[in-house]
Design brief:
Blueprint lengths: L1 H6 L1 H13 L1 E6 L7 E8 L5 E7 L3 H5 L10 E6 H14 L3 E4 L8 E3 L1 H14 L9 H21 L1
Parallel strand pairs: 3-5
Antiparallel strand pairs: 1-4, 2-3, 5-6
Length: 157
Amino acid sequence: MKQEQLNDPIYQQFITQVVQNQMVFTLQDEDESFAECPSESYSDDLGEPDTVYCFWHCADAARACQQEEWANYTLTEIQLADFMYENLISMDTAHHLVGVSFDADLFGIEVEPIELLADLLDEIKKCNLIDEFPDFDELQNYRHQWEKIVWQQQIIH
């Protein structure tokens, strides 16, 4: 799935725009819960769809989804550093998915938070913006630990 994401122009636009603007957008309800929907691609051990939390690269794309069940949700901006360090890490720990640039029909890209984190870190490095992210090395370390675990699991299987 990773190579498919990198070749997807919508996903790539999300990565480049979010890094360039250092901002992510989401919709939140009155309890400050993120807009979510059930996964179309992933399910838990009981066969139930995994939870997908939705984020956008621009405010207009998020606003376009403020309808039906999300009509009363508020547009929220999240600094990229906070998004990576707080949201993506906690979503990874909780085994939730990230919905990238979903449209009004809830069609978008579902990605594991650690994969999105890795792509964002790569883009930050490519754009020579490492100095603007004080926790870059710590996030990179988290990524490498995850990659090591995945690599070890592949050897076992």
